[in-house]
Amino acid sequence: MRLKIGELAKRAGLTVRTLHHYDSIGLLRPTARSESGYRLYSREDVTRLFRIQTLRRLHLPLTEIATLIDREQTGLQRLISEQLEIVDQQIKKQQLLQQRLQTLHHLLEANDQLPLDDWLLALEMYSVADRYFTPEELLWLRSGQQKQLLDQAIRPLITEVHALMERQTPPSDPAAQDLAVRWITITNDLMPNMPRYVLHLSRLHRNEPGIQALTGVNGELIDYISMASIEVRYGIYRRYLTEKELRFFKTSSFQNADAWNTLFSDIREKMLAGIPPVADEMQPLLRQWRNLFLDAWGNDMQVVQKVRDIHRQETGVLLDGGLSDSLMRYAREGLIHLEAQLRQATTKEK
Length: 350
Hints:
By secondary structure, this protein is mostly helical. Helices cover 70% and strands 2% of the residues.
C-alpha cells in the first residue's frame, strides 16, 4: 500500500508543504509517482519519515539529519549519547538558574527595602559570578556579608578614589598613597581563608561593564590604586637606594602586577593547605617569584641583596594585594632553600 502526500501528511501531523520541502532537499523522496504525477510513499518511506521526526525532536537541523539518517545503528547511538550530554548541560543550567532565583527570593524576604542600585548589583553579580568565583567564594558572596563589607568599608573608599582621579591627583600624592594603604589593608583582610577571592574580584571588575557601572570599580581605578601602592614602596626604597638602582622598579612592578597578585594567591593557597615551603611542588612558584623579583631590580645581585636587607627592616614594602607578613615569611623560607639549591648546582657544574 502506498500513500499519497496528503494522506501521509495527515497521518504524520505535518503539512504537505513540509513534505514538499523534504523532497526538494533530498531528505525524503517518494519511492514512486502515480500516472498523474502524484507522489506515492511506501512503507520504507514512512519508516524513514518516522526516523526524521524522531531526530527533529532532538532539535537537530535538517542538514545534520540528512547526514545522520542513513548511518548504522552505532552512529545513531553515538548521536543519542551526544544529545543526552547536551540535555544534561541544559538541566544543570536550569538548576543554577533555580538556585539564583531562590537566593534572590531569600534576599528579598530579608531586605524588602533595598535600594534599586543594590538590587541591580545583586542581579548582575549573580548572572556572571559563576565565571569568576569558586563554589566556596560564591557561598560567601551570596551570604550577605559581601554587601555589609561593601557598605561599611569599600564604598567610602571608592568615592575617595574617584574624587582623587577627577582632580587628576597623581598616584605619587600622599593622599593617594594613604588611600592605597587603606584599600589594600582592607582587601588583604577580606578573605583570609580564600586566597584567590580578591584576585577573582579584581578580574570581575576589569571584565564586566555591568558590574563596573554599578560599583564604580573598573580597570582604571584598580590601576590607580596599584600605582599608588607602588609609590608607597618606592618612597621607602628611596631612603636606601639610588635613582640608578631604582630605575627598573616602577615599570617592572606595574607591568608585572597581575603576575605578582596571581603568584601571591597561588602561594597563599599552598600555605593554607599546609604544604612546606621547601616542598618540591613549591619550586615552580618560588622560581617565578625569584624571576619577577630579579626583574624589578635589573638582575643586579648587589641591589637585590640591599633590597632583601630593606625588607627585614621595613614592613611597609610588603604593601601589595595578597601579600602579608605570614606569606612573606613562608615564601622567604622557600626562597632560601631554593637559593641554596641553585648555589649547590652551580658548584657542581664548576
